[in-house]
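Input/output pair, single chain:
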Amino acid sequence: MGTVLEGLESSFAERVRRRLSEGVVVWFTTVRRDGTSQPNPVWFVWDGADEILIYSRAEANRVAHVKQRPRVSLNLDGNSRGGDIVALTGTATILPGRPLAHENPDYVAKYASAAARIAGSVAVFPAEHTAVLRFTIEKIRGQ
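Output:
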């Protein structure tokens, strides 16, 4: 089975791959019970295909939102001039028993220095971010 990216025009697909590989923050948008969108900047790791992992505080509202309304979106920042837009829609699930952030080599490689700067060490960060969310890409759009 192919990935969602395989169905895109090649230059756009390549730009999406680059942005998902190199991006540091993505806007993860869930929906509150009253229907209000709740965008939050989060760190993420893309698997190179159709899944993105996000580590979150278990008590964060986004985790409760995902449990109640798993249809979410991820948006990468544009270029401040209305271009380089990438918006992903799909479904988020909570993955119990998954390795924590410091046990994910791709996550550690990407965020070790930032986690150390924010939390004191890469090992402290996962203690506070124990919910593992998997976002499955279903549609990609942008310009």
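The chain is about 30% helix and 35% strand. The two ends are 26 Å apart (CA to CA).
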